[in-house]
Amino acid sequence: MKKLMLCAVTAVVLTGCADMNGVLGAMTQPSPTAAGGNQGSVHIDTRQQPVDVASGLRAALSQGVTTAINTLGKSGGFWDNPALRLPLPASLAKAEKTLRKLGMGSKVDEFQLALNQAAEQAVPQAAQVFGDALKQMTLADAQGILKGGNDAATQYFRRTSGTALAAKMEPIVASVTQKVGVTQLYKQLVGDNAALLALAGVQNTDIDRYVTEKAMDGLFSKIAEEEGRIRTDPMARGTELLKQVFGGQ
Fold it and tell me: In this prediction, what percent of the chain has a pLDDT beyond 70?
């Protein structure tokens, strides 16, 4: 279901997931604004035109985003990945041992699981935001990304989409945290032991913001991982366009 949702949401950019090359090729035509801001040409090798560079980078970004969203935006996407699993908020983690000694261990575990479930359900909302960022990519952006490090494209996404992504995801997170019981569990953990936790230095945490930020961090981390594979592993370049662009580096 979420893969179908992803295809539908990203249709603005890709007009369907099956024909990425043709659509992205059309999207690489510079807008008047983009053209005016960049008079030079970007070349990978003598056979390529600047538009091919932008198309290839858009295809790489799209491939990375699709993989990241499909991987994380499913049941267990965060929870089953120890490297990206959302931990307890730092303030609450200070009191974890105390809470477990008080017999609240099951509630602590339920709370952490619910945090991750909220992140998993919010991640698919990133597709539209990233699609908008792809459409705004200029040749100057493409040049900087190509000459940058293994996560240069991911950093472009973070720079151009971070604020919009947070604004898009946080309302979804708020809805999901309520639905899966995160807020209720947090109140049980903190409210029922407020005096004791205050002595331990535990402060109230904005749970919705915490989940949003951690979900974004995990998403960007996964996109960077995929970008690195595309840059360094020829087998990860699924299209001729990607092979041409990154093979010329």
Answer: 67
State mean pLDDT over 34-56.
Answer: 47
pLDDT at 249 over 70: no
Calpha distance 227→215 (Å, rounded): 18
d(C-alpha 156, C-alpha 152), whole Å:
6
Residue 31 CB neighbours (<10 A): 11
Three-state SS for 83? coil
**CA-CA-CA-CA dihedral for 90, 157, 57, 141, to nearest 10:** -130
- φ and ψ at residue 212, rounded to 5 degrees: -60, -50
Residue pair 64/227 in contact (Cβ under 8 Å)? The answer is yes
Q: In this model, does residue 1 exceed pLDDT 80?
A: no
**What is the mean pLDDT of the segment spanning 94-111?**
87
**Sole residue written with tokens 């991640």:** 123
Please say if the pLDDT value at position 107 is more than 80: yes
At a CB cut-off of 8 Å and minimum separation 6, what does 239 contact? Answer: 20, 21, 59
**Distance separating alpha carbons of residues 125 and 169, to the nearest angstrom:** 6
Which alpha helices (H) appear in 123-151, and where do they start and end? Answer: 126-135, 139-147
CB 94 within 8 A of CB 201: yes
